[in-house]
Amino acid sequence: MAELGLEHSRPEGRSHNAVTIPRMKILALETATEALSVALLVDGTLHAHHEVAPRRHGELLLGAVDALLIQSKLKLADLDALAFGRGPGAFTGVRIAVSAAQGLAFGAGLQVVPISTLAALAQAALDAGAPRVVAAIDARMGEVYAAAFTADSEGLAVTAGDEFLGPAAAFTAPAGTWFGAGTGFGAYPDAFTLEMDGTDPDALPTAAAVARLAAREVAHGRTVAPEQAMPVYLRDTVTNL
């Protein structure tokens, strides 16, 4: 089904952080940035649809979900949970993911797992071997959404500080060297005052990362009912990326 942009992957050994993917079934949605991203974790194997589709998330999301479920011969009711990127990010994109997660989970009787979009963004850099990652998304208006992350024993992102909204120059992280991931580093490349050992300014969060982070939450019983699925905007003013 290559024409749908479907990607298939199994976890590979990494030189720095080893990741073990639990055996469970989780559907994940991530639409807080320009990327439309859907992933299905099925007993340790990830199937994903990821494309850059600004302002088309509402149009394309449910079709991508249906394609992954059909490909995997699963129904929503077969899943263990439904995860979504809860922001921060573009207001409309975050709202689309929350609304879709609530609607799908209600209909199938599933619990949901809200996952930080910044944690999902950091995960790819952690997988590539960076031990400490600052994830930053361009929030427009001269500001960034940002947070610092390290990896747990399974190689999954854990926060090293609060999520932040403000000028890049005002963001702080614990002392040491950091790798930067996300569009915030493209929008304000010289503004951060951190000690950096590289950046990926084109990085976008993926639903595959959301699914893997959600598996950890499900394993520890950290799920919520669909009506308790809440977005995190950090900003009251509506801004679309």
In short:
With 241 residues, the protein is α/β, with parallel strands linked by helices.
Distance between the termini: 29 Å
Q: Helicity, in percent? A: 25-40%
The number of distinct helices, counting runs of at least 4 residues, comes to 5
State the secondary-structure class.
Answer: alpha/beta
C-alpha geometry:
globular
How confident overall, as mean pLDDT? 91
Reported for the largest beta sheet, the result is: 6 strands, mixed
Radius of gyration: 17 Å
Can you count the beta strands?
A: 12
Strand order of the largest sheet: 1-4-3-2-5-6
Q: Spans of 5+ residues with little confidence (pLDDT < 50)? A: 1-16
Reading the helices and strands in chain order gives EEEEHEHEHEEEEEHEH
Strand content: 25-35%
Write a concise keyword list for the protein shown above.
single chain; 241 residues; alpha/beta; 6-stranded mixed β-sheet; 5 helices; 12 strands; 26% helix; globular; disordered N terminus
What does this 3D model show about the protein?
- The chain is of the alpha/beta class and 241 residues long.
- Helix content is 26%, strand content 28%.
- The protein is built from five helices and twelve strands.
- Strands 1-4-3-2-5-6 form a six-stranded mixed beta sheet, with helices on both faces. Strands 7, 8, 9, 10, 11 and 12 form a six-stranded mixed beta sheet that branches.
